[in-house]
User: Fold this.
Amino acid sequence: VAIETCRRLGLHAPIAEQPQYNILHRTRVEKEYREIFELYQYGTTIWSPMASGFLSGKYNSGKTPEGSRLNEPGRGQNILNTYINSTPDVFDKLQKLEKLAERIGYSQSQIALAWVVANTDVTTCILGASKKSQLQENLKSLELIQKWDKNIEKEINDIFKNEVSKD
Assistant:
């Protein structure tokens, strides 16, 4: 509606959306925005590609490491509940993702970021790294993008079983 209204009135139309998008949170980008991407070549600047750190590997055991945002009063429990309630067996799935990452020679963080960037509807990805070491780790996912293929994507879909129908 906003794009059509702007065009009709001769105004600058929006060119991008800034949705949350990651392996655990897919529906908005892959289903709700599908028509916008196809009709208008709309871009995205996605946030939370690591699902608030959930996809980094540090929570795979189900324990919260010291200094983690999940230890923050209120906020941490909300994040934890979001992913536990929305993704059955989330810790089992995270451990399987870790094994896949190890098998292909990358970290769990790198595979999670590469998965996001491999989506043709993702224009820009906000990393949100809070430490230099995290940024360095995250940037190595660019190497994996060069090797990305449908087999890796299928293995991830098989682990999480949350692929969004394009219908």
About this structure: Residues 90-104 form the longest helix (15 residues). Residues 44 and 122 are 5 Å apart (CA to CA).
